[in-house]
Design a protein that fits this description.
Number of helices: 7
Number of strands: 0
Strand content: under 5%
Distance between the termini: 104 Å
Order of helices and strands: HHHHHHH
């Protein structure tokens, strides 16, 4: 027996409604598995606690209020979807699943947090902010700024390399003047 099987049979075991064979199997598993034994003890303790709790009677006005607020004998009409509605429903059904919606919400939250940490100011969007011309203008502006920063960086880097190469040439010339190269002495002729 696995722990999952025991969880499935635990309620019947605590109630005492399991057949003798399954009861013995459950007791053998509880003797071996400490985690399942603790779960069984906790569940039995909870059941004992619930037996000690007094039964609460609902107030008589509660039933009257429920019946009064519930529509009485009005037939529920189900409006049939059009073919277009069915197509849209099928197309967006995977997107509108709770897992997908929660994932989207967490993605938006993550981007909001990253923007906050990056120092991007959050402000309320206005309809004018969503106009295509304004979006294009902002995109072009950012693109030109990025291009000009890149060119400026390249030009600065080129100047630094030129200065470094000139300094190397000057230091090489100074070293040659201080330490002139001596010509090697000729070897004596062999005899």
């Amino acid at each position: 027996m696995t722990c999952a099987d025991l969880e499935y049979l635990l309620c019947d075991y605590i109630d005492g409604s399991l057949p003798a064979e399954q009861r013995k199997t459950v007791e053998l598993h509880l003797a071996v598995c400490e985690g399942c034994a603790e779960l069984a003890r906790d569940s039995a303790g909870l059941l004992q606690f619930l037996e000690r709790v007094p039964v609460v009677e609902p107030p008589p006005s509660l039933v009257t209020r429920i019946l009064h607020q519930t529509p009485s004998n009005q037939p529920v009409t189900v409006k049939a979807k059009s073919a277009f509605g069915k197509l849209i429903g099928r197309a967006f059904a995977p997107i509108l699943q709770p897992r997908m919606v929660m994932g989207m919400a967490m993605t938006i939250l993550s981007f909001a947090m990253l923007g906050r940490f990056a120092g991007i100011e959050a402000r309320q969007l206005r309809p004018a902010d969503l106009s295509p011309a304004r979006i294009l203008e902002a995109t072009e502006d950012r693109m030109h700024r990025a291009w000009s920063r890149t060119v400026k960086y390249y030009e600065s880097l080129r100047i630094v390399y030129e200065v470094q190469s000139r300094l190397r040439e000057l230091t090489d010339v100074d070293e040659e003047e201080l330490n002139p190269k001596q010509e090697p002495k000729p070897l004596p002729p062999e005899r």
